[in-house]
Amino acid sequence: MRKINIPTLMKGIIAFSLFFVVAVGTATAQSETSDKFDFTITVNSDQFFGFYPFFAGSYAVSETSAFTFYGILWSGGTGGVQGSGGGWGNWTEFGVGMNFDVADGLSVNPQIGVTGGNLLSSGTAGPSIFGDGIVPNLTIGLDKAKTEGEIYFGLYSPLRNEAPTGGTTLAYIHYWTNFGVKASDFFSLGLHYEHLINSGGSNVSESTDVYQWLGPYIQFADPNGKAFARLSAGGDLVEGNDSFFKVTTGLSF
């Protein structure tokens, strides 16, 4: 019979809940005005994760800080399918955090997320569960008059072990960085680098590179900041892989 690591699961959920309570408590302590809330929805597609909508919101608690939340509807995807599960158990991710404006046009946003599904907890071979994994992550954003950029780093670690005999849990390191120049209010272009590493698991002997993408991007954006569309494409530096493509479009409210 499969063993459920309840203490580990509860520790992760408690940590996530406490972070959420503290952040929300800070946000609600301030006076409520509609201009303090921002919300963005994007839809994304690439050859590894497939099609995945993403949303992110924030509520300002001061002139330089805001409570943040986000969600990723990873769904099934097409990459990294292992075992007899045949998919990722409708993989999802939801998290909360705080954003800090540390300089003009420069922000730092630490967050912590929790996943549902079966990718981390059983390598897609077990049941789809809540508490599949926990995701501490950090985003650094750059948005100035003539330049833009982003750095993201996330650790995907299993919260529960639902792997069958001979199977394994999985852990990942996922990070990217991009930097671009705004040629006009409408058009920008730059360079995108992204790396996904299978960093371990209960039955994983050594880490391996899943993909390592490098290539240019072009972006078209509403000068009023409401919508954008971006294409990133280029080569995959992992031996045996060929190329990558990523299309993203979004709308802000």
Explain what you see:
By secondary structure, this protein is mainly beta. It is 11% helix and 57% strand. It contains 2 helices and 12 strands; from the N terminus they run αβββββαβββββββ. About 4% of the residues have low confidence.
What are the salient characteristics of this protein?
single chain, 253 residues, mainly beta, twelve-stranded antiparallel barrel, 2 helices, 12 strands, 57% strand, globular
Short description:
By secondary structure, this protein is mainly β. Helices cover 11% and strands 57% of the residues.
Distance between the termini: 49 Å
Give me the Rg, rounded.
19 Å
Q: Note the main sheet.
A: 12 strands, antiparallel, barrel
Low-confidence stretches: 77-85
SSE order, as H and E? Answer: HEEEEEHEEEEEEE
Strand content: over 45%
Spatially, the strands of the biggest sheet line up as 1-2-3-4-5-6-7-8-9-10-11-12
Helix content: 10-25%
Q: What number is the mean pLDDT?
A: 88
* Dominant shape: globular
Strand tally is 12
Which structural class do the helices and strands define?
Answer: mainly beta
- Total of DSSP H or I helical runs spanning 4+ residues: 2
